[in-house]
Amino acid sequence: MKNSNELIFIAGFPRSGTTWFSNLLNSHSKVIYRHEIIGRNYKLFSDELFHALKNNHGLDDEQHQQAMKIIAKADVNTDKPPFFKKDKGMLGHPKVHYFSWLAAKAFPILTKVYDMTFKVPRSAGWKILIKETRSTNCLDSILKGLRTEHILYLVRLPYGAIASHMKGESIGSMEKQTSQTKSAWYKFICTHPYSKKIGLTEDYVKAMSSAEYYAIKWRIYHEDLVAFNDTLPNAIFCFYDDFVNQPIKETKSLFGNISLQYNNDVESFIEESTGIVSSPTVLKDSNNDYFSVYRKASHDKKAWEKELNETDIKMIDKHTKDFYHMLRSTFRTGTQ
Known about the structure:
Rossmann fold, alpha/beta
């Protein structure tokens, strides 16, 4: 039986709110979320299939069916709480789903039972959501190969994304960037048009501040997304800060563009994840506030102003300000 489920793909620079944004869609009863199945869990695919996905800019029908079968299959490493009520089967019981997931994580012998119990039904009308924040390398080939129905690029104000990276490093939640990791990154992007434009050298990259390092990474990442637009015209640029400031308005607009009906379940997630109402403990996704999609009502939307100093802001502006404004003026959410 042919798999007729549609695919939604969310891509965004790390620490741009992609997990919260993904769960905004995941809270809908017809959406199933697969967390970073391509970047972190690529070993679920055969070497041959994954190579074709990355390099062929398109899969044949048999390869595509193989890929969609893997994506539809439940897996404790690509499923991630919070879990929401879905339309059919055991997916309609989020508490059971949550505790089954915990059990399968703790006892690998249960993973096969988990996989069978919570796989996506092969019926029309489901939308499977994939979120990725890894490199844009091969991303255009992956999107074409998966025949993605809706592509969403999430863009966050550079200050917020970069400040979040720097905070993560300072509290030990993210790996600190060393001269070795910076050097490896430089070798990867040394031929990029922006690297050439500003005359980057390996020595300069190794010595630069964290703010400038992440600012250049942010710029290159988003330049690549814009470049993809010529061959992936079904992409929509979404601006995270708009969704934070006006979540109901922006979500209704987006859902209209991707054929999803806004409903009470989605609004409940918005209220719970923004601290308007308390969220049920069983739905919590993380014990660490840094990674959680649930925030308190007292959450400071401009916390970056306390994380960044004047020099940091100057470096970020140098590399991102003009390009961010170009994105805002050219790709307003839902107008592409």
